[in-house]
């Protein structure tokens, strides 16, 4: 771990591999923006912009992640949920907190802190985002994966995070990754209790955290207390390339083709990346020319849907 006492996140940069799960530590437990009164106010601001995701504690590891809020709704407002989080029987995520001027500073402070170490082996940090999870006791985050690299940090309470290697095709098939990158659907991802034995498991206490590479499947179980957790996420040149290749493969599957897994054929990957990147860049150029906001995964901050 870094000996620098000023660092917000401590990472063993000597062994850091952007595609390997690893433990980290942090110093954000007492940060004023991460205490419940501040989070209640943030939740009011974000809820008015549709940037809160919530479901009840009835969700299980196998609940489909994308539809959990509809399958197990939490009918309370975000502020009410957070004000009584110990009894609320709810899971809540404050989404894209970087869209809030106050919290964007926190996102930048933390990601600026790790950027030099990340850049050495994984350049091109962009699409910065922040996500805060406030959860009632004994509540589960269903099995799922995300596109971004992720520093997930425990602020208060305890939880157990199960994480699977991003190359583990038992936890998530190549087809599941292709479809996710193409259209953000996770319906080819299937939970099975036997997966627990294959996971890297973190029993997180305040001050502890983990680094999870892009599309590492994960599932989270709270302890018997309420919990606050924050994730700082980003893309890099490598994650954008990986995502584009998976999306290209999904397109090829739609044409009846059966491409090899991403990474197995360097020449095919090179040609696909060059072709699809050019097409995407052209589309973005056209939107800019028409005065429209381009959707680009190279933006400085995550674009809130
Ligand atoms: Fe996640």
Automatic annotation (TrEMBL):
Q: Where is this region: Disordered?
A: 50-70
Composition-biased stretches, type Polar residues, lie in 57-66
Source domain of life is Bacteria
Q: Where is the JmjC domain?
A: 94-249
Tell me which PANTHER family the record gives.
HYPOXIA-INDUCIBLE FACTOR 1 ALPHA INHIBITOR-RELATED, HYPOXIA-INDUCIBLE FACTOR 1-ALPHA INHIBITOR
**The protein, known as:** JmjC domain-containing protein
């Amino acid at each position: 771990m870094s000996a620098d006492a000023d660092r917000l996140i401590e990472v063993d940069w000597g062994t850091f591999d952007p595609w390997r799960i690893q433990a980290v530590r942090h110093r954000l437990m007492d940060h004023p923006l991460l205490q419940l009164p501040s989070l209640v106010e943030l939740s009011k601001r974000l809820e008015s912009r549709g940037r809160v995701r919530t479901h009840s504690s009835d969700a299980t590891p196998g609940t489909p992640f994308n539809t959990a809020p509809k399958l197990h709704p939490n009918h309370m407002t975000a502020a009410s949920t957070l004000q009584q989080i110990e009894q609320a029987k709810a899971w809540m995520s404050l989404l894209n907190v970087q869209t809030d001027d106050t919290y964007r500073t926190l996102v930048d402070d933390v990601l600026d802190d790790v950027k030099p170490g990340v850049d050495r082996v994984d350049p091109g940090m962009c699409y910065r985002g922040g996500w805060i999870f406030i959860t009632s006791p004994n509540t589960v985050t269903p099995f799922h994966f995300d596109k971004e690299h992720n520093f997930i940090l425990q602020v208060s309470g305890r939880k157990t995070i199960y994480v699977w290697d991003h190359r583990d095709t038992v936890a998530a098939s190549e087809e599941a990754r292709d479809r996710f990158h193409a259209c953000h659907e996770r319906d080819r991802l299937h939970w099975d209790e036997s997966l627990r034995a294959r996971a890297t498991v973190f029993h997180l206490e305040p001050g502890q955290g983990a680094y999870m590479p892009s599309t590492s499947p994960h599932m989270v179980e709270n302890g018997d207390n309420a919990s606050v957790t924050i994730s700082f996420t980003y893309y890099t040149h490598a994650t954008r390339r990986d995502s584009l290749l998976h999306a290209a493969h999904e397109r090829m599957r739609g044409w009846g083709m059966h491409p090899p897994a991403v990474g197995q054929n360097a020449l095919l990957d090179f040609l696909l990346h060059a072709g699809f990147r050019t097409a995407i860049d052209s589309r973005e150029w056209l939107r800019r020319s028409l005065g429209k906001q381009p959707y680009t995964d190279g933006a400085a901050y995550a674009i809130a849907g």
